[in-house]
Write a structure and sequence with these properties.
- GO terms for molecular function: 4-hydroxy-tetrahydrodipicolinate synthase activity.
- It comes from Streptomyces griseoruber.
- With 303 residues, the protein is an alpha/beta fold.
- The protein has one domain.
- It is 51% helix and 11% strand.
- Helix 5 links the parallel strand 4 and strand 5.
- 47% of the residues are buried.
């Protein structure tokens, strides 16, 4: 399948790529009704790219059955209002099964989570992604890169073998490394998504990104859309005004090695009465002092 066939998917990546939370009910199971309501809120807020089973969705804390449920709920709720980028990962057979499930449901793309393994070689990284991409040639494939050691030419090698590798979620916190990696891999060949969300979006856009992922978007879709509109028009002062607006919220998420990355988002949603704040181990709820601060920030955005 030629890259032309992935025009819709490529356009969807050059946007706010929302990573929805997975809300839990009082008994600890996935709260399907709350999940649907949160998805509708994103769609009604103008978000058109959704990533079920992303890290803000607590991918690694969900069972295989729950990951399938989250994908099914998202595809069903979104209908034709959104392009769906399903997070897949773990061992190769598990990732392939998840990708095929996404294909059966009608999703357009899969995002391949960074391989969680203590020993990742450059060639092995290519082999891992190639096995998944070749299993679903009809789907766009988006590697999620958090490995600062990975060379851009490895990505080019992967795409040579698998033309359905169309975009990259780049999440190494180094704008200069991103600029070099993108140019080594092929700046025009892929859609570059700033994988560290709004705090890194301005610097990554200046180096060639055209989309960014967001967990904050769960709380305030308009804020994320304001930032991408500013970046698309090249208005960096306006983008940095949004950056200043979200800075404290994102600092709370990033503190202590991003320990409370999801927790802060769910706490904000809880303060707005949209879902319970519970997260699963190894994440944990916020201390009381930070809960009040998060609620105040969320209230300010909803004015």
């Amino acid at each position: 399948m030629s890259s032309v066939a992935f025009e819709t998917e490529r356009a969807a990546l050059a946007d706010v790529v929302a990573i929805p939370v997975t809300p839990f009910a009082e008994d600890g199971t996935v709260d399907a009704a709350a999940h649907r309501a949160l998805l509708r809120r994103l769609l009604d807020g103008g978000i058109t790219t959704l990533t079920p089973n992303g890290n803000t969705g607590e991918f690694y804390a969900l069972t295989p059955e729950e990951r399938r449920l989250v994908t099914e709920l998202t595809v069903d709720e979104a209908g034709d209002r959104s392009t769906i980028l399903v997070g897949v990962g773990h061992d190769v057979p598990t990732a392939v099964a998840s990708a095929r499930h996404a294909r059966e449901l009608g999703a357009g793309m899969v995002m391949v989570h960074q391989p969680v393994h203590p020993y990742v070689s450059q060639r092995g990284w290519v082999d891992y992604h190639r096995a998944i991409a070749e299993a679903v040639p009809e789907l766009g494939v988006v590697p999620y890169i958090r490995n600062a050691q990975l060379h851009g030419d490895r990505l080019a090698e992967l795409a040579d073998a698998c033309p359905n590798v169309i975009g990259v979620k780049y999440a190494v916190p180094d704008a200069a490394r991103f600029a070099a990696f993108a140019r080594d891999a092929g700046l025009e060949r892929f859609v570059w998504v700033a994988g560290l969300a709004e705090p890194y979006a301005p610097s990554y856009f200046s180096a060639g990104a055209t989309g960014f992922t967001s967990g904050l978007v769960n709380v305030a879709p308009a804020v994320s859309l304001n930032m991408i509109e500013a970046l698309r028009s090249g208005d960096y002062p306006a983008a940095m005004k949004v950056w200043e607006q979200i800075r404290r919220f994102e600092e709370l998420r990033a503190a202590n090695g991003s320990a409370n990355n999801v927790t802060v988002v769910k706490e904000a949603l809880s303060s707005l009465g949209l879902c319970r704040s519970e997260v699963r181990p190894p994440s944990r709820g916020l201390p009381e002092s930070e809960r009040a601060e998060v609620a105040a920030i969320a209230a300010g955005w909803s004015l």
